[in-house]
Amino acid sequence: MARTIAERLTEATGASFVGREAELATLREAIAAEDPPFLVAYVHGPGGIGKSRLLQSAVAGPGPGVRVLSLDCARIEPTPRGLLEAVGGAFEGADGRCVLALDTYESFGLMDSWLRQSFLPSLPDTAVTLIASREPPRPGWLTSPGWAGLFHQIRLGGLDPDEARAMLTRRGLSADQAERASRFAHGHPLALELAAAALRAQPDLELVDGPPPLILQQLTQAFLAGQADIGLAGSQR
Questions:
Q1: Burial class (CB in 10 A: 0-12, 13-18, 19+), 134
Q2: DSSP label of 138
Q3: Which one of 1, 16, 185, 202 is CB 3.0 to 4.6 Å from 192, fit for a cystine?
Q4: Residues 175 and 166: beta-carbon distance below 8 Å
């Protein structure tokens, strides 16, 4: 049977993923474990830091008998009805591992208590839920006697210099280009991707040191929201 484009995209995403070895291993081990150490993993960090890529890589090729449903919360009506319709009967009758991946979870801010108190407890006890959000988890996840021992949070920061250079060389940059782009982006994954794209298009493009990491994160969030473009050369800043 011919592969679908979605399958090829998943393979390409996995092949291009760099860094986050410890975080990725934590998620994959929980999915594969007979008795997972947690039932909800909550990945959080600023826009463009790599949360979606981490979830995509964690659920890629989970093995036989594992049901995976990946949802972008920004595309779902943020109501109990909206989520129930999106999930449908994906996990009905499941007797093996189920994985629910919820990306852009900040869109579900008003749904958090309902999801924690009503929806997730209704899933089979073989279900592991992965959440990615720009916002940190709300206190109920950490203080509820029931969830405290079944919840694991992962805060993502920038890639370290070695990981950043490895990512850039996989994107086709020379060692010199990778070094210049790494200094510019301060380890921020989306800024690294933008710098790599610019250097592939203009190999001699001069990159100067980028703005401080916090400002870079704010610019990236504006870029993701469609409110601004990020200039990569000094003359464009």
A1: middle
A2: P
A3: 185
A4: no
Q: What Å distances lie between residue 5 and 11, 120, 170, 182, CA to CA?
A: 10, 31, 22, 31
Quote the DSSP letter at residue 117. Answer: I
Where residue 172 falls (left for φ over 0; alpha for ψ -120 to 50; beta otherwise) is: left
Distance CA 169, CA 112 (A): 40
Residues 138-151 have a mean pLDDT of: 91
What do you get for the CA distance between the two ends of the chain, in Å?
Answer: 50
Confidence grade of residue 225 (pLDDT, cut at 50, 70, 90): low
Res 76: pLDDT: 97
Mean pLDDT of 73-88: 96
Strand partners, 41: 130, 152
Decide the pairing of beta strands 127-133 and 151-155.
unpaired
1-7 contacts: CB < 8 A, separation 24 or more? none
**Which among 208, 223, 198 is positioned nearest to 47, based on CA atoms?**
223
Position 93 confidence tier, pLDDT thresholds 50, 70, 90: confident
3-state DSSP percent of the chain in helix, strand and coil, to 5: 50, 10, 40
Which secondary structure element, helix H or strand E, spans residue 153, and what is its range? strand 151-155
Q: What single string gives the DSSP state of each residue in 67-103?
A: EEEEEEGGGS-SSHHHHHHHHTTTTTT--S-EEEEEE
